[in-house]
Amino acid sequence: MEKMSNTTPVADSTPVVKLGATLRERRVAMGLSVADVAAQIRLAPRQIEALESDDFGHLPELPFVRGFVRSYAKLLQLDEQPLLATLPDPHLAHERIEPVSVDVPFNIKQLSKQQNQIWLIASSVVAVIALAFAWWHFTTPKKISVGQAETAKVMEMAVVLPEQTPAMSAVVQADGADVRPDEVQAGPSAAPAGIPALKSASTLVQSTVPAPDVSAPPATTSTKLRIVFDGESWSEIKDATGKILSSQINAPGSELNLNGRAPYDLVIGNARTVHLYRRGKPVDLTRYINKTSEVARLTLE
Question: Model pTM?
Fold first, then answer.
């Protein structure tokens, strides 16, 4: 006769760690109030209450929450690893939700009719523009040619004028004045005297031509940032190229000096204890701080 053995499965005796309950029980055992904890780790009392209630909806992003848990566990002298293991998976927390496309029915015939009307209007506008351009093209050169003819006539008069100097000297001789032969021969030499005058005039015209503008060298878009942390704070800074210049938890009394290409995208936790300087000038973070999460989000141009 076969013996039947009844085996009863042994339940796993490993205790389940609950984040909020563990923190609250340890805080009460140490005789600390919510306000005491908030003052020591520089968090808002409502954030301490949200941690102890596992209310992640009233807490900032997961990287900030992990920093909160580390600071709280350090204050309560607890091992942070089991507590961090209870937090949601960061990959699942940041999983992108793809948008759902919705098909909207439409009347194909009506759409085709509207497209035809738009095409007719566009063709009419193009035709009007082409006619206007053709009219301008064929009428404008006539005005330009008249101006060129007047300019050529003036230049011709300026060149012929010095050649009349010998004739004028001959008229002076015909009036009966005593003129020596060497003085008569000196008349033609007056013609070349007018040529330097023309050259000086052309030189004057050339001197009035403005010198080309020399543009200043383009200013660099690199801007220096300086961030000073009075309290523990998590920060992430990206520049215009998308490069992450810094992403870390910063200790009290530390500071960051960063150079990159503006504009910058900044996310700063526990922002009330942080001082931001751009090109040596302070930037007021208070107007960017979320009252619930104490996180500042801003873009510096």
Answer: 0.36
